[in-house]
Amino acid sequence: MSKHHKIAPPKPVRRPVYPVLAALLLLIGLGVWLYLKGGSGTQPDKLPSQAGNQTASMVDEGQCAGCHARQANDWRGSHHQLAMQEATDASVLGDFNDVTFQGEGETTRFFRKEGGFWVNTPGANGKPADFRVAYAFGVAPLQQYLIEIPGGRLQALGVAWDVDKRAWFHLYPGQGVDFRNPLHWSRPQQNANFMCVECHTTGFKRNYDPAADRFSSQWNSLGVGCQACHGPASGHLDWAAKKLDAANAGFAIDLSGTNRIRAVETCARCHSRRAPLDDGHHQENRLMDDYLPSALTRELYELDGKIKDEVFEYGSFAQSRMFAKGLRCSTCHNPHSTALEVPGNGLCLQCHNPSGKTGISGIDGKGLKAKDYDNPEHHHHPQGQAGSQCVDCHMPGKSFMVNDYRHDHGFTLPNPARALRLGTSDACLGCHRDQSGDRVAEQFRLWYGEAKADAPRYDESLWLIRNGRPGASRALYQQLEIRELPAIRRATLLAELPAYPSERALKAAARDLTHPAPQVRLAAIRAVAALVPPEQRRNLLAPLLTDPVRGVRITAAHELLGLRATGLGNYEKTWDKAIAEYEAVQLKLQERAEANLNLALLYQANGRGDAVESRLRTALQRDPEFLPALVALVQWLDGNFRWEEGRALLDRGLKEHPQSALLQHANGLMLVRKGDLPAALEAFAEAVRLEPQNSQYDYVYAVALHDSGQLETACHRLEELLERDAANREARLALISYWREAGQMQKVQALLAELEQQNPDDPALRRE
C-alpha cells in the first residue's frame, strides 16, 4: 500500500523563466494513486439491474449456499473468505501475549486488554499510545492488522505477523519509516478505507464526508463473497423463485459465459494496479468505467513485461500469450477456493503435452507443439526438484510485503543471454546466482540453441526506445504495426510516442483513437495531446467525449481543457458533460490530497480561480506531507502577487523537509522569478544532489547555468545527462543550441546525427 505516482501541480498565472513544475512530476491524467482501497460497516449497496427499472440489491450471502453447496464449500476457509475478519481469538494469528517488537526506530508492544487485541506504538505525533486492533487482514503468508482511529479511519499497521515463522516483522525494513514518514501506519498513505478494504470485503462503500472529514464506511459482508464478483443477488433470487424473467439469471453479467474479457476484468478490479474513479464499482460496467489500470510503466514492469513492483497479476496476464489464446483467470484458478484447478505441472500439461492438443474447451490450440514437457530432456533438472516445475522457469516471481511471493503471470520464456543484454531478470540467472551470468547463458544456449524471432521483439524494441538508441523510432513504429500486439503493450508503446515527435507519430497515435480496447484509446488520447498543441486537438479528440467507457471520456475532456477559452464549436455540450464527469470523479475522492490538487488544476484551467486556493489548502489538510500540493500553493500565491506569503510557506516547508529535492527545485524556480539567479543555482544544485537520477531537475539546473553565463558548464552538465538518458529530446535540443552558441559546430553536427539515428522524422531536423 505504499506505491504511488506523483501528480502535477497547477501552473502559475505568470509563466516562470524555467519549465513549470508541472513538467517535473509524473502526471496521471486523472490523478489518484494506483492502490487498493478500503472501510467499516454493514449497509447493503444497490446497483441498477438489467431486468428493467428494478434495483438490484445485496442480500445475505448465507442464502447462496442452499443452491450452490459445492461453491460454498470451496469458498469456506479460502483466502477470499478470510480476507478480512473482526479481531477475535479465532481470527488473530499474531502473538499478543505482551510481546515487543523493535524496528525502524520505534517500539511496538502487542498485548491483550478488555477482551480485545491492542498495540502500544507511536502515533501520528510520535508519542506511544494504546490502539485497539479492529480487524485482522489476510491469513497467509502474513497477517496485517487494522487500527481504528477517530474519524472512522482504519489504518494498516506497519508491523505484520509472519505466519510461517511465527514472528513479527516490519513491512518496510531499512526505510526509516518513523512517524514523520509518509509510509508510517498513522499517515494517509496507510489509510485502509481508501487503500485496501474494498478488495477485502463485499459491497464496500467508503462513504467519506468531506465537510466533516470523516468516513462512515460500510459493507455488506467481510471477506470476498459471492456478490463481490457476481454482483448484487436480489435479482438472481427473484429469478430462481421464478418471480423475474431476466437475462444472466438475474445478474448484471454472466461470469461463466463466453465473454472472457468481462470475466478477467471482474478479477482485475482487485488484481490490478489501478486508480479508482468512483466509490466502489458497478458490476455491469467495464473495468475502465470504474478504474484506470496502469500500463507497463518502467516503474512497475521490466522491459519484457515481467513484474518489477507489486502489480497484482492482471497487467502481466493481459500481455501473455495465454490470455491471447483464450485463457481466463478461472481456467487455472478455482475462483471460489482460489486453489489451482490441477496441482503441479498437470495444470500446464492440459495443453502443453505430447499430443499437441488442448484438453480445455474454449482455448485456441493453434501452434501447440506435440512434446513431452514434463521431462528432464526439456527442463534439464531432476524430476521433483527446483527447476522441474513449469512455474519455476515460466512464472518467476518476487516477494512483496517482505514475505509474500507472487508469481509473474506473463508466462515468459527464460533467456539468460537476452536478460544480461537488456538488464532484465531471468529465471535461470535468478536460481543460479552462484555462477557467472555468461556461464549460465552459454549452458542455456547449448541446451536450447539460439533464439529465433519472426518479428521484432517487444522487449528489445522497448530497450531501444527507452534508451534513445539508433533505430528507436523505427522500432516503435514496427511494434505498433503488429496487429496482434496485446492491448496493454500497445498502450505502453503509445506513451513513448511523445519522445519521438513527427507526423508519423501523430498518425500512429490518431489511428488508435478508434482501437477496440479502451486502455489503448485512452493512451492514444494522451499521446495525441502531447504531440499537438491544444488548438489542433479538437477534431481528433472531441469524438472521444462520447466514448462508451467513462475513463476514456473524461481523459478526452481533460486533454481538451485548453480549448475552453477559444471554444469547442459543436462539441461544447458534450465537453461540458464529460468534464463534469471528470470533476465528479475527483469529488468522489475528496479524502485524498491528490484529488483536491486535481480539482485545483481543473478550476484554474476552467476559469474558476476563486476555488483554486481553497482546494490546495484542503489538499494539505488531508495530507500535510503531500509536497506537490505545497509547491502548487506556493506557485499560486506567487502568481497572484502574494510573493511574501508564498515565500514564507516554502521556507517553512524547506525547514520541515530539508531533504526534499522537489522543494529545493521549487525554491530555485521561485528565486529565478525574483531575479536572484545565484541563489537559484544553489537551490537547483541541491535538488540535483538529493535526487541525482531526476533528469528534469538536471535539465533545469543546466538551463540556469547557461543563463548565468556558465555556458560550457551547462553544456557539460547536459552531456552527462544525455549519457544516462539519451532519449531526453529536450536536453538534446538545448545542448545543440548551446554548442551552436559556443561555435562548436562539430559537436552540433554529432548531436544532430544521433537525433537523426533515433528519429529521422523529428521536426527539429527540418529546421536545421
TrEMBL record:
The segment(s) forming the Cytochrome c-552/4 domain are 63-88, 191-231
Matching entries from SMART domains are given as: TPR (SM00028)
Q: Which SUPFAM superfamilies match?
A: ARM repeat (SSF48371), Multiheme cytochromes (SSF48695), TPR-like (SSF48452)
Q: Which domain of life is it from?
A: Bacteria
Spell out the molecular function terms from Gene Ontology: oxidoreductase activity
Q: Does the keyword Cytoplasm apply?
A: no
Q: Ranges for the Doubled CXXCH motif domain?
A: 324-354
Tell me the keywords, alphabetical order.
Membrane, Signal, TPR repeat, Transmembrane, Transmembrane helix
Repeat region (TPR), residues: 661-694
Transmembrane parts of this sequence:
16-36
Q: Mind telling me which InterPro entries this protein's record contains?
A: ARM-type_fold (IPR016024), Cyt_c-552/4 (IPR023155), Multihaem_cyt_sf (IPR036280), Multiheme_Cytochr_ET (IPR051829), Paired_CXXCH_1 (IPR010177), TPR-like_helical_dom_sf (IPR011990), TPR_rpt (IPR019734)
- Protein name, entry field: Tetratricopeptide repeat protein
Native source species: Metapseudomonas lalkuanensis
